[in-house]
Specification:
Order of helices and strands: HHHHHHH
Number of helices: 7
Distance between the termini: 62 Å
Structural class: mainly alpha
Oligomer: single chain
Strand content: under 5%
Radius of gyration: 16 Å
Shape: globular
Amino acid sequence: MTSQISNVRTKQFCYRLMALTAFVFVFLCGHAQQGQPSMAQQLAALQRLEAMQPDSIGPKYQQAVLLLGYVCTHPQDGKAQQYLEEAQRLMGKIEVMQPQKAADQSDLAMLHGFYYTALIVTNPQQNGPRYYQQALDNFDKALKLNPNNEMAKQLQQQFRKGMEAQAK
């Protein structure tokens, strides 16, 4: 009986996580509708989820994706540096959890690549030459660990397009 309840909870969590991932993807693509919750509301919801599941990587990962996505789309926002620091703190929490699954390690490497991308976006002239290789290396690592990591593929493609545009 307990295992059935656990399986139901696991499935519910997976469905919620997939829905949240889809929501973040829409946010990152810039196709979000006007009536969506604010950044602070989205972050607060993810923080509540993390508090309910402190041993889970998912809520920490989703928060970092949200923060880094916001920085990449709003690099001149006054809170960009604060969001970068918070994303870095969350990545540190994930690292301390020592993810064993290749998918989780892939997601962590993708987050590092995304973090370096966000740093570059905030100051391309200074940070581009400094962090370009780290971003690429982390996206490559993410895809070596999990070739099916769609977010890593998409971010790597966007990163390369952005770098090509900067070079022109």
